[in-house]
Design goal:
Structural class: alpha+beta
Distance between the termini: 29 Å
Helix content: 40-55%
Strand content: 15-25%
Largest sheet: 6 strands, mixed, barrel
């Protein structure tokens, strides 16, 4: 049965390659979109996961960083330090604004770090320092990609800064990151008695979730989350924002794959109707003939699925070479989703050819010979 399905599919190698290629491109569309969104999630949540903190303390009800606003008294830092299981606590201020260099604006997440910070600093430095001196900024993102160098001037919230370091691995295609000193942040925005978040490091062996629960119980009007929980909420924000786009693009990939497969399988089946008639004349059941068509559909979708996945992996390797801020990550959930879609596509694509076969009579073989 599979041999006949393979023979039908590759009766014309050009048509078979076009069919498999079309299905592969449809799956690549699905895989690539999911990979870009997963990469965006990873980059946006990456700063949180790489701060070195075990617990994030925020304003009551705030459980993520981006698309959120958190303001808590800076005195909370001392209260948190007194909680059992806490070995270090430090304030961090956060604000979304633009950096201006040579008249061009760059959207950035501005991070204010206290002096001697051991949490929240960039983990990978391309050049310069990881921690800014007074009047300096450490940047990662489009500004660096466009040739900014250590020592260049940049304007942040109406004040001039000198680039003291160039970081990498944290920014995304949506925004850059800029790290300045907390006292510079206070000077720019005022209100030095508040902070946005408190980063907490727990004692070795202590549970971050348990320490977070103790902080919430002991400190009023705050929400404490383990870094893992905080980062997951950040990822959820990206997923919620991209749900409609992903659904539209996945539907487009599904319809393209279905159309290409249905046309190729239908054409291959119709061109071999006399052979199916011969099979019936030799005693083959309809069930056997249907199995050949389904096998052909399964073979097409399997080859297209594998090729589409391979092309997506290749694109994920090439993407950073084209744009270092474009990070693609193929996930198992995406593969499983596409596999489920492939089963539906294969089944639907086989409906029309099966309908054709069901009406074939064995006598078609003799009629064709007479003609």
């Amino acid at each position: 049965m599979l041999h006949l399905a393979h023979r039908n599919l590759f009766q014309s190698r050009t048509k078979a390659l076009l069919a498999i290629g079309g299905v592969a491109l449809a799956f690549m569309l699905i895989f690539s979109l999911d990979a870009v969104l997963a990469g965006l999630e990873g980059r946006i949540a990456g700063f949180i996961e790489k701060t070195g903190a075990d617990v994030w303390v925020a304003q009551s009800g705030v459980r993520n960083m981006h698309m959120a606003s958190s303001t808590i008294p800076r005195a909370v830092v001392d209260q948190v330090r007194g909680i059992d299981g806490v070995v270090e606590a430090a304030p961090v201020r956060y604000f979304t604004n633009v950096m201006v260099k040579d008249g061009k604006q760059y959207l950035a997440y501005i991070i204010g770090l206290p002096g001697g910070a051991t949490m929240g600093t960039p983990t990978r430095i391309a050049s310069g320092d990881a921690y800014p001196r007074p009047g300096e900024v450490v940047v990662d993102g489009a500004l660096r990609q466009e040739g900014a160098k250590v020592g260049d001037a940049v304007r942040i919230i109406g004040s001039d800064f000198r680039i003291g370091g160039l970081a990498e691995g944290l920014a995304s295609t949506l925004s850059s990151l800029a790290f300045i000193r907390l006292d510079d942040f206070d000077r720019l925005l005022g209100n030095a008695t508040t902070t946005s978040y408190v980063l907490v490091r727990v004692a070795p062996g202590a549970s971050a979730d348990e320490v977070a629960a103790r902080i919430e119980a002991a400190v009023p009007a705050v929400t404490a989350s383990s870094t893992n929980a905080f980062a997951e909420q950040e990822r959820k924000v990206v997923r919620d924002m991209s749900t409609d786009i992903a659904a539209i693009m996945n539907l487009a990939g599904f319809l393209i794959g279905l159309a290409v497969m249905a046309l190729s399988i239908y054409t291959a089946t119709v061109s071999r109707l006399p052979e199916f008639g011969l099979l019936k004349a030799l005693g083959a059941s309809r069930r056997h003939c249907y199995g050949i068509v389904l096998g052909q559909a399964a073979l097409t979708v399997a080859l297209g699925f594998g090729l589409g996945l391979a092309l997506t992996f290749a694109a994920s390797l090439l993407a950073p070479l084209v744009d270092p801020l474009l990070y693609m990550q193929v996930t198992w959930s995406s593969v499983v989703k596409a596999a489920a879609i492939s089963l539906v596509v294969a089944g639907l694509a086989a409906i029309a050819p099966i309908a054709q076969i069901s009406g074939v009579e064995p006598a078609i073989v003799f009629r064709r010979k007479v003609a």
